[in-house]
Recover the amino acids of this structure.
């Protein structure tokens, strides 16, 4: 890791070394408020996804404002949050392999832990491990339904019912509900396309729920949703738990979604601060933030409040900007990038530099950075 | 970071938890040997790029086999290697900003350090900082020439000569030579295209050298080259230092280069071990290594020795494989991925798990992981 920090609390914004990952605390807090407001008085609860931030300081603030707990994507990620005092975590993933299942059971002995299944072998392995603990742990098990993303998950119907029966037959496992996340709907640009995709997802979730309940198994929780679509899941009458993650930060990709009347506008709160380190030609500038500073899996970053600049190419530690000369760009000039995708960008840093009123207010460790086991 | 390691020395290959970054030590050592062999008896020296591995254990082995030192891409990265005992480092980058220049001077007080310039303001800032040390540091300064990548660098001619004059006028700076790296030539698939690109780069480097030497400034070193092209720079009669990085590991992108008669074949030595955690349909399997486990900036990973499997989509912690049913893929099956691009993939991990003969032989810290200041 970097042998020194890019900044210390009290430093001015201009003094933060680059590249650095910055959180605009005012915008972040307004985003938290907007999400609380969006679910107030509704029959849904919030379980934000911590894979976006990997930062206990943020999880604790989400819970302080009403979240029931968090989601994690990996067992080792969940372990970091349990260590930080979070007591209710849904691991939104299948957990496969003896080592991982042993770790899950250790976590479930000290916190409420949920995991997903979409195959009988997963249920058998979890049941055996939980039974070996002889009542000392309770594990929440959710069936993942494929509601449109075609990644993991079973279709509603026979396979889903069979999994519920298998879980129900294990005294050591608790059937908690259905995981119905439609990931690929989150970035459909057109609001109608997102609404249509989630209407279909909700219909699949409802079918799965009814099929399982018809066999006598209560489906307590139907959980899913992301930042791009959560108002539709909220209003669906079938989802009762929402998992948005990116709303606290936002990114260039989410910023390109067109918003409809039902959508909530969140503010860009996450930035990569960068410096122009080379100005080789009149139409080109090179900054010190490349693909090890801002993940490019969802496209290049944009340059905040500089529509005259386009970040066109990233190599490991260089970013090439094309300029149209509308405004000069000086050697040494500091710019703010909006990452293409917030989650993997945060995962490149050990520290989130929290700024307010032009000053560094705090350094928050990205404690679960790299926790991918 | 992950609160436990994916493996311990002595563990069997099958027991390594996933996803994990694996180094095949036999293949790695053969790659080191092949590079030594490729420059034996030639009038070039090797200064491998450490941005690929960020691992002092590897740098020390490169130097033990004849490398004169290493390249780094960032000041904080160089600091990690200086701490580990490396005494000769070329930072192949412009160093801009007071904080970074102060750090460079601290490193130059204890090790031989080189940096690049492509603008008079950079020379002025370095000269002022070095002069303030009053002879206590010597800094090697290289002029970056744009030899075809159109990223940083000046064209041969007037601007390059002017920079040499500026450096030559500063008693506190040592003009060391020219940095002539053609990055975009490395992955041209066709060997003739690579040869042609480097012939042109060498011509530009020669022109720049002659122009500067005509003014009375000796150009000691012409440094550049990468894994895709280094035999051409080696044979150019103008380059006398080579900077390949990826040859120790290789990746899917380099593996797709077609090799010509002059090229050296390196072996794939770097892998991301992964587990099938979901098998939702007959033609789809989902593994536990997504884009936080294997960087996708240069495309998806491939599946080692499984041409029947295609990794078609990466999300944060999921990888979707399409299968053609030629061979079964079982839930829980372990597979080895060849990363699309080795450098940013290594930068996702804290530990390189070194394997030989089916056993974990060592864990090497990726000590400069995330060091991007």
């Amino acid at each position: 890791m970097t042998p020194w920090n890019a900044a210390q609390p009290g430093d001015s914004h201009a003094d933060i070394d680059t590249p650095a990952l910055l959180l605009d605390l005012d915008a972040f807090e307004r985003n938290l408020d907007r999400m609380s407001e969006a679910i107030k008085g509704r029959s849904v609860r919030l379980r934000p996804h911590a894979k976006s931030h990997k930062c206990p300081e943020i999880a604790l603030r989400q819970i302080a404002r009403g979240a029931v707990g968090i989601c994690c994507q990996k067992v080792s990620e969940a372990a970091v949050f349990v260590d930080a005092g979070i007591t209710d975590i849904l691991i939104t993933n299948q957990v496969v392999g003896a080592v991982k299942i042993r770790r899950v059971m250790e976590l479930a002995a000290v916190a409420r832990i949920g995991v997903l299944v979409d195959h009988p072998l997963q249920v058998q392995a979890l049941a055996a491990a939980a039974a070996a603990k002889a009542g000392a742990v309770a594990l929440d098990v959710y069936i993942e339904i494929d509601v449109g993303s075609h990644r993991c998950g079973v279709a509603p119907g026979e396979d889903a019912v069979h999994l519920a029966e298998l879980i129900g037959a294990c005294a050591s496992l608790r059937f908690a509900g259905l995981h119905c996340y439609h990931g690929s709907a989150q970035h459909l640009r057109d609001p109608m396309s997102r609404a249509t995709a989630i209407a279909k997802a909700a219909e699949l979730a409802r079918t799965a729920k009814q099929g399982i309940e018809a066999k006598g198994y209560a489906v307590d929780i139907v959980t899913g949703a992301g930042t791009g679509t959560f108002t539709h899941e909220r209003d669906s009458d079938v989802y009762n738990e929402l998992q948005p993650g990116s709303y606290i930060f936002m990114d260039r990709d989410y910023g390109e979604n067109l918003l409809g009347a039902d959508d909530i506008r969140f503010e860009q709160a996450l930035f990569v601060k960068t410096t122009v380190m080379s100005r080789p030609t009149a139409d080109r500038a090179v900054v010190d933030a490349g693909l090890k500073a801002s993940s490019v899996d969802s496209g290049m970053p944009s340059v905040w409040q500089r529509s005259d600049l386009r970040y066109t190419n990233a190599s490991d530690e260089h970013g090439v900007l094309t300029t149209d000369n509308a405004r000069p760009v000086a050697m040494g000039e500091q710019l703010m990038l909006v990452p293409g995708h917030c989650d993997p960008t945060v995962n490149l840093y050990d520290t989130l530099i929290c700024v307010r009123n032009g000053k560094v207010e705090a350094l928050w460790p990205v404690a679960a950075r790299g926790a991918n086991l």
Observations:
- Chain B has two domains: 13-21+266-365, 42-250.
- The domain at 13-21+266-365 of chain B is CATH 2.40.37.20 (Lyase, Ornithine Decarboxylase; Chain A, domain 1).
- DSSP finds ten helices and 17 strands in chain B.
